Amino acid sequence: MTATSKAPAAGGAGESRVITLIQAVNEAIAEEMTRDSRVVLFGEDVGGRGGVFMATAGLQAQFGKDRVFDTPLSEASIVGAAVGMAARGLRPIAEIQFADYMGPGFDQIISQAAKIRYRSGGQYTAPMVIRTPSGGGVKGGHHHSQSPEAYYAHTPGLKVVMPSTPYDAKGLLKAALRGEDPVIYFEPKRLYRAAKGEVPDHDYTVKIGEAAVRREGTDLTLVGYGGVMPDVLKAADALAKEGVQAEVIDLRSIVPWDQDCVLQSVEKTGRAVLISEAPRTANFMGEVAYTIQERAFDYLTAPVTQVAGFDTPYPYVQDKVFLPGANRIVNACVQVLNY
Fold first, then answer.
1. 175 pLDDT more than 50
2. Residue limits of the Transketolase-like pyrimidine-binding domain (predicted)?
């Protein structure tokens, strides 16, 4: 079942308030640490400072240094410690300061966390969450702006999510912490304070693997996730002024991803434009495109088109050129519509 974005998709009636995406992350951690004493949080500068983006501000004061603590500058150690903690019954949240820095912990993630359930025949699991700010838009340059989600989507045993709204950020993080699998939780840093939305006061989760239909339409399907979603919606608004009704799907979850939602939409519209900010080659959206042509080929009236980052290291100052903004998305849509 696929959620819509007209109203919160889970939980019962109750009060809500408008918060930012980064506040939603902070709240989710605090509530899960209160709910479950097994949850611990650690990483570089997450304690007294509250992280480089202040996502963990106040948590050490609330839960103490035994449950919220700083680590050395060693991503391999951070991830390795999380795997060991998870295997021994804790629910660790390991923060990697930037997604670009996950490289030193890569072997721990793909060879240990992702495979421990299978290697042990189910005797051990790794219920852990690796949180990391991802993507561009803040002029962070080569080492602070990459979108490496495809590396982890390729690894069986991992779940990979990337929210674009405060509601989803909180609900997906809670779901990740309550699951039994390792989850790579990418946080689009350019939306930390730019994305605002209503979040219920009551407890809720967002199921990992369900997309959200942000806008209904009949003429073409736009699929995105994470930091590109505001531009995808801007593009849909611009198209609507010209009489074109685009259906907008926010994947929210990359592994698993909601194939049924995308296919149902493409079967209705006959056209698909796939948007992400990772470099084009081996982009995860290539998997989405392949699935569409494999399972919905007879419904297509135009080739599936991608709008992505370029095959180059992320530039320091050319964010607006590298990132797939609304204009690039609209241009791709026009080409598909005129095919």
1. yes
2. 19-194
